[in-house]
Amino acid sequence: MDVPKHDVLIVGGGGAGLRAAIAAVEADEHITVGVVSKVYPMRSHTVSAEGGTAAAVREDNTDSHAYDTIKGSDFLADQDAVEIFVKESIDEVIQLEHWGCPWSRDPDGLMSVRTFGGMSVDRTLFCSDKTGFHMLHTLYQTALKYDRIAWYDEWFVTSLLKDDGKICGVTALNVRSGAIDAIPAKAVILCTGGAGKLFAFTTNASIKTGDGMALTYRAGGPLKDMEFVQYHPTGLPGTGILITEASRSEGGHMINREGDRYLSAYTPERMELGPRDMLSRAFIQEMRANRVFEGPYGEYVHLDIRHLGEELIMERLPFVRELATEYVGIDPVYEPIPVRPVVHYMMGGIHTDANAKTPVDGLYAAGEAACVSMNGANRLGSNSLSEIIVFGARSGKAAVEYASEQEFPEANTLSQMAQAEKKRIEEQFLKPRNGNERVATIRRDLQLAMEQGAGIYRTEEEMKTACEAIRKLLKRYEQVEVDDKSSVFNTDLIAALELGYMLDVAEALAHSALLREESRGSHAREDFTTRDDERFLQHSLAYQTPEGPRIEYLPVSITRWQPEERKY
Amino acid sequence: MSAKKITMRVTRYRPEQEDAPTEQAYELEFPDDWVVLDALNYIKDDVDGTLTFRWSCRMGICGSCGMMVNGEPKLTCAAFLRDYYPAEIRVEPLQYFPIIRDLVIDMTDFLHKLKAITPWIVRDEEKPLAEGEYLQTPAQLADYKQFSMCINCMLCYSACPVYGHEPEFIGPAAIALAHRYNLDSRDEGQEARQQVIASSEGIWDCTLVGECTEVCPKRVDPAMAIQRTKVATTTEWAKSMLMPWGKQ
Amino acid sequence: MKQPEPEYTYPTYHRPIPATWWLRDRKYFLFMMRELSSFFIAVFLLIYLYGLSLLSKGQAAYGQFQETLRSGGFTLFFVVAFIFAVYHSWTWWSIMGKVQVVRLGDHKVPERVITAVALAGWVVASAVVLFVFTR
Hints:
The complex is a heterotrimer of chains A (568), B (248) and C (135). With 568 residues, chain A is α/β, with parallel strands linked by helices. Helix content of chain A is 36%, strand content 19%. Chain A has 3 domains: 6-53 and 128-228 and 348-411, 3-Layer(bba) Sandwich (FAD/NAD(P)-binding domain), CATH 3.50.50.60; 232-344, Alpha-Beta Complex (Flavocytochrome C3, Chain A, domain 1); 413-533, Up-down Bundle (Methane Monooxygenase Hydroxylase, Chain G, domain 1), CATH 1.20.58.100. Chain A is built from 15 helices and 22 strands. Chain A is globular. The termini of chain C are far apart. Chain C is an all-alpha fold. Chain C has helices at 26-55, 59-69, 72-99, 111-134, and strands spanning 103-104, 107-108. In chain C, helix 1 (26-55) runs antiparallel to helix 2 (59-69), helix 1 (26-55) crosses helix 3 (72-99) and helix 3 runs antiparallel to helix 4 (111-134). Chains in contact: A-B, A-C, B-C. At the B-C interface, helix 5 and helix 9 of B face helix 1 and helix 3 of C.
């Protein structure tokens, strides 16, 4: 097929990707933009975000939002990036409002704000408790307005193409036909989200397999701060379905088996609205002290919102009620919800600067896939939805500017690269090869290794074991045999390709974690229990080598806020 | 957790091998809290990697996993096996849609229709961002909020015999979304949308079967949106006939 | 801009819809019955209009027509048409509450109240008509 070429090609059709696409076509009326997404854009995982979007719309200045974010990050956030973020998030949420996002409103017609974990001021805008859903659909429907955006729905990117050291497009599998083509582009933006699927127990959708992270890693770009994995304190046992932090913003209580609001011992000033890393650790402490409930899917505590009353729950938290009723048969109006910490978010990701630019020429990244870093060692709830629109927009503009100075690559070179990629995938997966490994088995073993080595609390021994396990899994992956050898909608092949991405990302993560000998934010070590600013006030950068990841360090950018002890 | 045994009959269609769909039966044991999607994933992972279906969030919000379960359009992430046990379960691709493969349907038709109804805010003049948000009271929000809850899961199309017989029909979800933007206090695009919705493929195709509303997992009530649009359109038309000077 | 729409080698499968689709499910059956009711109501109206036209031709012609209507076949038809008319009207008033938003000040009148009022109005109007014509 004759694939058009694009000035800017965006991989991923979630919040960041769609915002980037709109920003790009608006930045230059002559360019065209392609959005390649392995699912229809409105299926992207932004859809599952619930609680809200932080922006200092009701404040005189943005310093408090910046400070909260930096303190939340355990001082690992780059403060210049945070300052940009807090300023631009205001216009970005208003822009979404102008595009029709149904923000919840105060009686006077202004957008409502609610409190959120680690935020000292009410500054989280929301659409009841389906904020991500409404943002995503607003962005998607708005993006449909622009005829210069081409949609590659259900195309799966298999590699980044590089010519003369610069990114010049991608190769992608058209899922419906099975064809593998090159899509030429002057600049590529990766907005592929996180990699929660490295873990079995996660709030994340099945599509979150770290594709963009692995693509960058394979193309020679570094992955930054991969050791920082956010556990959300309130997921439903078994499925891992997210119960939003907004249930605590609205006044919900966390209760242990003794009937106590146990967080008074951990985050006495903020109680249920402490940062997520601390609340998840508090759960483990309670578990070790034997003060939690036992269930078929492991230990849990109660999230009690009964006292909020049916009316408020239906107005502010209808989805919480829907999810709890539907999936665990508990109506939170009458019963407490069983919850436990669950893998939710990757603070780390593709190393970018505040313009979303990666060290690889022509390659940009935004959203959870990227690490700017504004989240440091622990992200505050409701900052991620603003991050995707702020840095989504910035990436779109920066990529257009870069693309304006580039030429399209030779068609011949590209088609050769596409042929080579096609051959690689056919040889490795589609030809019968008597492999003795199943995709699902390796994936399960990987998830087990990650759970054991990259949990809420970590030790050197556990992490070493995980690193070794992943090496072995990479070896076993060479023997993987897919059942499905056909062309049309081969999801077995896609699962195998995704597994390859996951293994690479997992290895970068485990090694980054092993080498960070301190406890900071979400990275809590039992053998190094304190923060070590002397040695580790630095970002880790993982580079791929044949022997495994090579880890380098990069100083944190500090502007106005010196590191201090982090208490809530 | 006790495991029970159930038979699942699943539609297979492999266009590279066969001209028409067939059915394949899988027998499996399931714990009490499994949904149909869990069973499909079990088959995919451990029994037969060629079984093909879409899914993602498994929490009823991404809209990927709609299928016919025993003849009814359902999100399979929310259809519990225990509710069908001990009878067999029949899982088919959403009806009225072309099948790409196995349980995967072709929904490109909907995407064209979605774009056709102008699903974005239309205004003569944009307010600068520096002037802040448009004011919208909770009551104004409540006017359209319900119609903004559509997750594009396609269950309503699959429940609509009109769509089945006349695939040109714009259909429940798209019309509900048009209604959502028409009711939004910030929007001025009603006229652009009206040309599509009031056309012969629009609201007047609807014969009020009402099943779209019944199957909607997010209680959007597209049937209501369509009927209200009919009333509004008729009223507008009557006004323009009786008082031609009133408009323009 | 042209959207990327490749040609696909393998066709999608379009399932035929069986003519009996509406018999498989009670809900679709009831829907088809409502559609069918229109036929009976239309025929009734044609008969009615024919009667009116005869009325203009004088007492004799109309009287004869009335005689014909008293036959068993016509009586059966009227009973069936009446049942369909009641069913159709019932469904019509039932959705009234959904379709018509009624506001009293800031307050939205609940759907059920609107439907109940409409149904009551229908019953009262029918009673009045019945009373006037059978007096």
